[in-house]
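Why run this: before we spend reagent on co-expression, it is cheaper to look at a predicted model of the complex and decide which construct boundaries make sense. The entries below are exactly what would go into the expression plan.
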Amino acid sequence: MSFVIKNIECFDPIKIAESGQAFRIHQIDDTHVETVALGKYLQIAILGDNNYAFSCTEDEFNSLWSKYFDLTRDYKSIIAGIDPDDEYLKAAAIYGYGIRILKQDIFETIISFIISQRRSIPSITTCVDRFCEKFGKKITPKLSDPFVSPIKNEYYSFPTPKELNNWSIKDFNDIGAGYRSEYIASAIHDFQEEKLTYSLLENADDDKAYELLTKMHGVGPKVANCIMLFGLARFTRFPIDVWMQRIIDRHYNGSYDYSIYKEAGIMQQFMFYYERTEKTH
DNA sequence: GGCCAGGCCTCGC
DNA sequence: GCGAGGCATGGC
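The model came back. Tokens follow.
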């Protein structure tokens, strides 16, 4: 087994795991986080002094994980650009220091956030896991020091559109997708018939990508913005769900102009994380 | 056991 | 264009 050690500022994988932007990244203990993403199992060991061990090769780190965890962006200068009069956001950014916006697989992001609507994050996690267990490929983690034993016995990749064969609506009902089952079916059709492709979405400008996504069955403004922010790295996007609306109502008198930030999505993630995990306000 | 969850669709106006 | 109602299921 190989691993790499990297020194990274402003990077907190535990907060990222708690942040609700991805559903397959989990804290193992105080110094270890694991995820299945991009078809691979990855574990991160927190070594201290901004040093992190990644359970992958140097090539994989450079070609996959550096981009996935958005490690080349200067978050410190983005945080420094926060409106000094915005006390709530300033507190949220301090509290959430180390969160980065993941660039997740587009198809996984679409299916996951279709499932996410009107459910709690633990419940989304359960449903997404079942989806992978049913349709994904088995992955066997190979780890040694400085890593620890994985949480679960078995891991499965998130299936690609091509890997989804012989599925029916019943399969999605069986995993607990509820009324979203037909939305999932429709999304799979869109990809398998190539009405939607990775390159079409990647190459679309923001307006076009938003239009393509909201045309999908079961994808409205909120889910489309999540897909754009967490799957297409469109940082101007600012998804507003019931939590965000509550923040805006309580702390901003019902309206919030996020358009002043080029990376509004990062601010959104700070606020969302602060509201959900900091119980004292 | 009741309430709410990273909302969206359809219908009626 | 906009508001109301309905929605399957899991966690707490």
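Residues 20-21, 113, 116-124, 179-180, 183, 217-223, 226, 239-244, 272, 276 of chain A lie near DNA strand B (CB under 10 Å from a C1'). The CA atoms of residues 38 and 105 of chain A lie 7 Å apart. Bring this page to Monday's planning discussion.
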